[in-house]
Specification:
The structure holds two protein chains of two kinds. By secondary structure, chain A is α/β, with parallel strands linked by helices. Chain A is about 40% helix and about 20% strand. In chain A, α2 packs parallel to α3 and α6 crosses α8. In chain B, α1 runs antiparallel to α3 and α6 packs parallel to α7. In chain B, about 25% of the residues are buried. Classes of the chains: A alpha/beta, B alpha+beta.
Amino acid sequence: MRLLLVEDDRMIGESLRGALRLEGYAVDWVRDVASARATLATERFDGVLLDLGLPPGAGGAGAAEEGGLAVLRELRSREDPVPVIVLTARDALGDRVKGLDAGADDYLVKPFELDELCARLRAVLRRHGGRVQPVLSHGGVTLDPATRQVTRDGVPVLLSAREFAVLEALMLRPGALLSRAQLEDRLYGWGEEIESNAVSVYVHQLRRKLGADFIGNMRGVGYFVGPAPGPKA
Amino acid sequence: MNSLRWRLVLALVAILVAAAAVLGGFTYRNVLVETEALFDYQLRQMALSLRDQGEIAPSQAEALADGQLDFVVQIWSVDGRTIYATRDHADLPSRALIGLAEVKVGHQVWRTFSTATRDRVIQVAQPVQIRKRLAADAALRSVLPLLFVAPVLALFGGWVVSRSLAPLNRVVAGVRERDAHGLAPLPTEGLPVEVEPLVTAMNGLLVRLGESFDTQRAFVADAAHELRSPLTALTLQLRLLQRAPDEASRAAAIAALGEGIERSTRLVGQLLTLARSEPGAAAAPMVRVDLAEVVREALVDTVPFALSRGSELELLADDPVPVTGDRTALGVLARNLVDNALRYAPPGAHVVARVVSEQGVPVLQVDDNGPGIPPEERSRVFDRFYRRQNGGGDEGGSGLGLAIVASVARRHGAVVELGESPLGGLRATVRFGDSA
């Protein structure tokens, strides 16, 4: 799962990025409106954490408080469905309504608890994926994004954070084919060194723990879970 | 009794009673005297008419003899023989003094008028008691209206007092409705000129109070809002520490947490400083101090910060520059200016503080070779919690430094200007008033 964190406060940004990485998310972090716009226009994310009080950034101007909302409106105006959770210090009812109406999927007022943010993030991602069950399940393997527990035939399986991330990405849409690059995107934020063949290594580990045929492979194209994919969705 | 209404009513009633008493007394006495005179005149007229008449006709004698009459008529011959008497008043002496006289017979006093002709003496007498009673009745009757009019006047006076004080009651009701949330001015229409200045003054006070309340409310709201960021950071840093999987990330998390606490502490400290320098705070007395000395002492505290950033801090303050002010607040002002210069300039910067007297005007000037502030932003940076758009807000600034500077300067009647420094960065100039 790859997240974009838009937050101008250095301390909040650093610790949030650190904490979300520990949760197994790949996190990219930008600190102003201009960078947020540029990044969202060119890259694909599974979710966005958006602070509202943002400086305009290079070449930008305008009211700082509207910065985040402007990014959100622009995102929605080009029909980008990426889930967005607004993180802000503005807690007035009007602000919350405005934030949600501008297209936010959820609204969290600072200071918030990390656990709550993670839970809301999971909920938003789950709804976005059109699922009701919080626990992903396929072929005797269950994956609980909240507890980060994976079982095979009811027996807990121990996975590393990266292995979990790969499995989660595959199990979110059974039958969908994910390329190596797409998986790498979900594993690594900017500035994180990508070990070559890391994805094949993690897939190998997962097959060892969950059964050799749990993850399918189309050579040179990518990986999938479940029935062999038809024409790519 | 400390009530305007009762004081007025009591005074009015007292005046009324006194006036009625005096008026009544005089009238009573006058009427009494007048009536006496009238009775005397009557006695006299009666006597004189009897004299001129000569003989008393039998019909007249009968009328005169009526027991109902208070008058007693006696006629004597010159030799003292009684010729005629309306009643046989043995009590009355058979002698008379010519003219008006009072004769006491037994318990009764008579008022008599006697007149003499060549051959007779005619005396008409009337009991003084009856005269007195009739006179008193007449006098009382003439005073009586006062007794009815006085209470009516008193009631009327009370009503007038109440009506005159009604505007005051309205003002009281209006003031009672006011609280910290509704400080609307009181209406001044229709107020008497004696009350209007009071209400106008009160309205002025209400406006000032309202402004002060608004400032305080805004300040508290801003402060609470501003505390959210460091608190968010602290919360996250703590969770990160709790989840740290290994020793290295643990150490990093502890360092980050320490940094977060330092930032929160600084923010709270700055908030307190600002609250203390705002108008209305219990201010320290203004004394004569040497600005150069104050700045020198203040900079001692910022030297470690300068050193930690590898920046160079220089103070040019050779001569004493006397200023009237609050020593602590002036120190805070100098420290914040220098601290800002160090904080927003890159490490290794050069900051120069200067204290001089320009034609008698004490001036504190802080130059740096940092990025400076563009002219269009210069007026806004004095706002509370304003942070530079792209000015490196990650240096742990509270957004309060220049607001504190402005607040302290205002208290000292000083002017703060931001401009370009010959060093390439920002020049902040604090110019104190001549009288400072």
